[in-house]
Design brief:
450 residues; 4 domains; Serine Threonine Protein Phosphatase 5, Tetratricopeptide repeat; mainly alpha; flat; 24 helices
Length: 450
Amino acid sequence: MKIKSYLLPLLFFGMLCVPAKTFAQAEPDDIALAEDGFQDSFYESLKQKGIENYDKAIAALEKCLKLQPQNAVVYYELGKNYLSLKDYKKAYESFSQASLIDPKNKWFYVGMYDVCYQTKDYTQAIVVVNKLIGLDIKYKEDLTSLYMYTDQYDKALALIKDLDDTVGETPQRNAYKQQILKDSKYRIGEKDQLLEAIKKNPKDESKYIALIYLYSESNQEEKAYEIAKKLEKEIPDSEFAQVGLFKFHLNNNDGDKAVTAMNKVLESKKIDTEVKRKILKEFLVFVKNNPQFNTDLDKAVGYFSSEDQALLTKEVGKVFYARKNWERAIHYLEIYSKNNPQEVESNIFLLQAYTENKQFDVLAKKASDLIDFFPMQPDFYYYSGLANNQIKNYKKAKDFLEMGMDYLVDNRDLEINFNIQLGEAFNGLGDAKKKEFYFQKADQLLKQKK
């Protein structure tokens, strides 16, 4: 993440004083007047900047420059005011001039970095940050991001390795590394480095797990399994070894052993939640074709925190929905809806799943409840009308559908469905004229859609 610049005025108080040599040939009274003039103008600039009168602040600073043309702080303040006005060219020039006068002050480079970042000139930002690193090594983190933004993956990967070795891994750098290693040309070198790291330190679990994933993503499952077994041998109680064993058993279609390994991973307090999520997603794909493991999937979801469970139940429900496994979709979407009643999208999926599964009594009750939560959401009126038509409660269907039509805005498909259901309702009520009217309207809308 980019480090926000700031400046403590006290750091520069001494720099505001006028160098004696500037007035070596001047009368004492003239020097006093010049000092007073500089300070008055400088503090006027701070006052005007504080109330966002940046043009007036700049005018006051220009007076300061006439008195002290080599004062770096004045240029720095000019840069900040120009940056506030989004005059990026003058802002950069001012910060740059400040750095030429005082090349040891990191905040002047931070000012240039701010300009580059705001203008998305990441190439120039790299030049600036390389100078900043000489003054503050923490900016190596920023340089990693800049290499990623400019697709310089070789340099990014080298810097990530350096930072991992010197200050330890971070989630952000791990995410960058995973992004880079999606390109197969970077994987070979990474595998070799990991093998060498394991040879040097066979007790470092993280290197095993990284290597297992690299082999798995390259479809080298036998090698992934070998590394997992080696980890298990070196560290018998290693929970990380189960990650590799899970993937191996799953690919061998050995569901029972995969479940055993998966549960050990999900129970682990050492293994990162993101790794657990990946394992659950892989198991979900497996369960779609092996429904006898549905109970194990339910148990697996239960290992996660309440917040994670909520997100996972929605995701799992949508997967089963896409596969038209309505019973399982309903199971998970109901859990999600119970914990997140305020979300529209998941509830629409749930109502459609009820419809596909012909659970019209349940659909009528749920849609009616949702209308209380969302009185202006037309989808819920539609499902309420559809459900009541199916259970032959035509008057109630008509009322819900007519109310819902008032909230329809630019949704042709839903408008067609409303008219069809209104036709059905009036048909049930024995009003042939209105039935025909709404069916014809639906037909016209269909033709317009084509």
